[in-house]
């Protein structure tokens, strides 16, 4: 009975409760994910459930892969048939089989945020709306949240017909939907929405999947949104064996529509639900857990629970105060070097957690200088690079020739002389006939006003695409992609350009081929469609190299569910963590606090927290106050690390210092210096004389921009900037 070993009584209860709805509600590191893994093994081995009747939804594809490996380890058997993956990847699987019944083709494209932007822009232009008032990004956000809440364009328009902006956004949304359909494409939200729609409206399909999924698991349930909730409600409608695990204290995707009520209302929504609470934490030492508890207890929007651990007290969490982000990076770097030298840890044991991706740069610089191997999770953006996107657009067009967005992207890449005016003529024609652009290109004789030369290049373009269409059927994914890369002439164009940049773009295209190689090893017999879906569905967290023994850098959001022996939680400053946009809202502030709790609870043995008084980020230099979350940690739980790093080589040499320094700084009531105004002269301790050119209220404080005589513009927080006012004698 392998699968019950290594579980406590409560966890066992969770595993053995196989029939009916079950909520496992428990704090970080209490073994929720472990219960799912063991339970799946138990069902297969003991209850003789077919793997294909199990569905397990994880937060990332990577988590799914890990879970699969664990289950495999427990069973020593094949677990290929379990449906394990994210909400999105599961929906793609269903849609590829079923979407024809709602009028799409099975080879639909999946549009990412850039494609969405292009589409929304088209809508705005077509509707002749003012581009200042109607900007793509906010509109995409509105559309996305409407979709999460399952509100369709007509309802939104009806609700808001008196509101000029919203009514028009509703109309853009409607047009956007039409365009997606015409391109045979779905955006990310659609993947869930259309699946729900299928299950709701088509009895045959509903029955099929309800019967199939006898047992359903959802990890990180606190981060599901409305449409995801509907989805599992439908899927579990027949057997009712739905086991969700989550922690309301770790709900950190409110901004993306996640609804904490899903977890709080589980018992009401799923009849006969049982709730199991786990209270023992197996991940962190006592001292780390105390820090986590002391922070999260300041939230009001929670059920309230306390975690305990049987682990040793361990080392105290350490706070390092830095002059600027460079000193912070040096501190972390030196710590890594020292701990490695001591021999107890390896690079793979360390993680640097920050609130925003932009913070990684200073650590990268010092790591490179010191030859410390590292990887950045999420910030890499390999798939956002132009050449990679171009190549993907080719593949998408070949997979789905109705995809106008992709076609437009590459019709003249590499340059083949199909310019904007030629394309304009073609699109004029398609807007009359309603055909796809590619369809029109095949029907070239019907289009007026094209030059003979244009016709020729278009013909060789369609001949090439047609050739690809035929080849796709007979070639493996990897060979096929290689063929596309070379025979489009893209590589050749880059080679001729022969610049440093074009070289690195060639490298990236080659790297993309190795992505295809990986794919072929992992998905035997996978098609181009599978490959593309796979690429689209990689979340930021998944888009990382798999090298093992390197330091990881990632955002706190990306770290959910993970654990590391040593955690550096950096950039703990007001306005950064908590992030500035949360400063005015209690609700958002609580989400930031939960995020901070997630960060601290990733640590197993050592936790280093740091902040910088002066930080340059996005090109601006600002003074900051230490994060309010630091103030919430009692003095005796956190020891201050002395500034001079040399001094703290030996652990016991570290001096414990009263934290009056931070406290004073934090509580120092802002002396508002009421008479400050634009034009006031100031003298700064380091930067000398300057003139105030901008003043903005930030909470009780003010942010000022000062033009220094020798240093240019700097942004300062009035309360803490080391400045004096210089009164001019009139
Ligand atoms: N009963 C147990 N005995 C020993 N170790 C355990 C036990 N339960 C869980 N663990 C270990 O504790 C760690 C945390 O478990 P797990 O990741 O499942 O927690 P979780 O509740 O899912 O955490 P999070 O909320 O961060 O997702 C893992 O290393 C896991 O292997
Ligand atoms: Mg977990």
TrEMBL record:
Any GO CC annotation of this UniProt entry? cytosol
Question: Which UniProt keywords are given for this protein, alphabetically ordered?
Answer: ATP-binding, DNA-binding, Helicase, Hydrolase, Isomerase, Nucleotide-binding
Q: Give me the residues that bind ATP, please.
A: 26-33
Enzyme Commission number(s) of this protein:
5.6.2.4
A single GO molecular function, which one?
ATP binding
InterPro entries linked to this entry: ATP-dep_DNA_helicase_PcrA, DExx_box_DNA_helicase_dom_sf, DNA_helicase_UvrD-like_C, DNA_helicase_UvrD/REP, P-loop_NTPase, UvrD-like_ATP-bd
Enzyme class, broadest EC rank: isomerase
Please give the PROSITE patterns that the UniProt record associates with this protein: UVRD_HELICASE_ATP_BIND, UVRD_HELICASE_CTER
Annotated Pfam families: PcrA_UvrD_tudor, UvrD-helicase, UvrD_C
Name of protein: ATP-dependent DNA helicase
């Amino acid at each position: 009975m392998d699968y019950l070993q290594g579980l406590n009584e409560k966890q066992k209860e969770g595993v053995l409760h196989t029939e009916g709805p079950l909520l496992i509600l428990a704090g970080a590191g209490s073994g929720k994910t472990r219960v799912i893994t063991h339970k799946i093994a138990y069902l297969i081995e003991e209850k003789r459930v077919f793997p294909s009747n199990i569905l397990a939804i994880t937060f990332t594809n990577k988590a799914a892969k890990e879970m699969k490996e664990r289950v495999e380890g427990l069973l020593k058997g094949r677990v290929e048939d379990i449906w394990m993956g994210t909400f999105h990847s599961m929906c793609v699987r269903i849609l590829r089989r079923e979407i024809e019944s709602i009028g799409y083709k099975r080879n639909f494209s999946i549009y990412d945020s850039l494609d969405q932007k292009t589409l929304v822009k088209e809508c705005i232009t077509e509707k002749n709306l003012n581009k200042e008032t109607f900007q793509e990004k906010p509109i995409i956000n509105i559309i996305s949240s409407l979709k999460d809440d399952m509100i369709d364009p007509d309802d939104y328009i009806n609700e808001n017909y008196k509101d000029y902006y919203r009514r028009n956004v509703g109309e853009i949304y409607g047009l956007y939907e039409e365009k997606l359909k015409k391109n045979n494409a779905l955006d990310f939200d659609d993947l869930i929405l259309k699946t729900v729609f299928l299950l709701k409206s088509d009895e045959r399909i509903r029955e099929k999947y309800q019967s199939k999924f006898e047992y359903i698991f959802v990890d990180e349930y606190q981060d599901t949104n409305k449409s995801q909730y509907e989805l599992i409600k439908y899927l579990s409608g027949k057997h009712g064996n739905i086991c969700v695990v989550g922690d309301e204290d770790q709900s950190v995707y409110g901004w993306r529509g996640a609804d904490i009520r899903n977890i709080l209302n589980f018992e009401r929504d799923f009849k006969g639900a049982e709730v199991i609470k786990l209270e023992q934490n197996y991940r962190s030492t006592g001292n780390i857990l105390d820090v986590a508890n002391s922070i999260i207890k300041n939230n009001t929007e929670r059920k309230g629970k306390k975690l305990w651990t049987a682990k040793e007290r361990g080392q105290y969490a350490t706070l390092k105060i830095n002059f600027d982000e460079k000193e912070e990076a040096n501190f972390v770097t030196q710590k890594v070097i020292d701990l490695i030298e001591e021999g107890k840890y390896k690079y793979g044991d360390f993680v640097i957690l920050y609130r925003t991706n932009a913070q990684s740069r200073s650590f990268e610089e010092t790591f490179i200088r010191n030859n410390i191997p590292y990887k950045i999770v999420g910030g890499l953006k390999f798939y956002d690079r132009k050449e990679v996107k171009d190549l993907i657009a080719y593949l998408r067009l070949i997979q789905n020739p109705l995809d106008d967005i992709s076609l437009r992207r590459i019709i003249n890449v590499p340059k083949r002389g199909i310019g904007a005016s030629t394309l304009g003529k073609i699109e004029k024609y398609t807007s009359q006939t309603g055909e796809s652009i590619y369809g029109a290109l095949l029907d070239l004789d019907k289009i007026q006003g094209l030059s003979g030369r244009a016709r020729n290049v278009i013909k060789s373009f369609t001949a090439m695409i047609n050739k690809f269409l035929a080849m796709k059927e007979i070639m493996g994914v990897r060979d096929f992609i290689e063929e596309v890369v070379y025979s489009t002439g893209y590589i050749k164009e880059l080679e001729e350009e022969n610049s440093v940049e074009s070289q690195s773009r060639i490298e990236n295209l080659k790297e993309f081929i190795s992505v295809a190689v990986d794919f072929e090893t992992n998905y035997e017999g996978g098609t181009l469609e599978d490959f593309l879906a796979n690429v689209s569905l990689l979340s930021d967290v998944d888009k990382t190299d798999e090298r093992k023994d390197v330091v990881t850098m990632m955002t706190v959001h990306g770290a959910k569910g993970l654990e590391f022996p040593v955690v550096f939680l950096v950039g703990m400053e007001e306005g950064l963590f908590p992030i500035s946009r949360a400063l005015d809202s209690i609700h958002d502030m609580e989400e930031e606090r939960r995020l901070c709790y997630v960060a601290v609870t990733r640590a197993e043995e050592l936790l280093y927290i740091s902040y910088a008084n002066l930080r340059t980020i996005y090109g601006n230099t600002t003074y900051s106050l230490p994060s309010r979350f630091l103030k919430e940690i009692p003095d005796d739980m956190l020891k201050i690390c002395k500034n001079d790093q040399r001094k703290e080589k030996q652990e016991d040499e570290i001096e414990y210092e009263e934290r009056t320094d931070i406290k004073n700084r934090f509580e120092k009531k802002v002396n508002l210096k009421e008479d400050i105004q634009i034009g006031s002269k100031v003298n700064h301790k380091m930067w000398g004389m300057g003139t105030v050119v901008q003043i903005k209220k930030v909470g009780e404080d003010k942010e000022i921009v000062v033009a220094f005589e020798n240093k240019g513009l700097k942004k300062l927080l009035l309360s803490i900037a080391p400045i004096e006012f210089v009164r001019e004698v009139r």
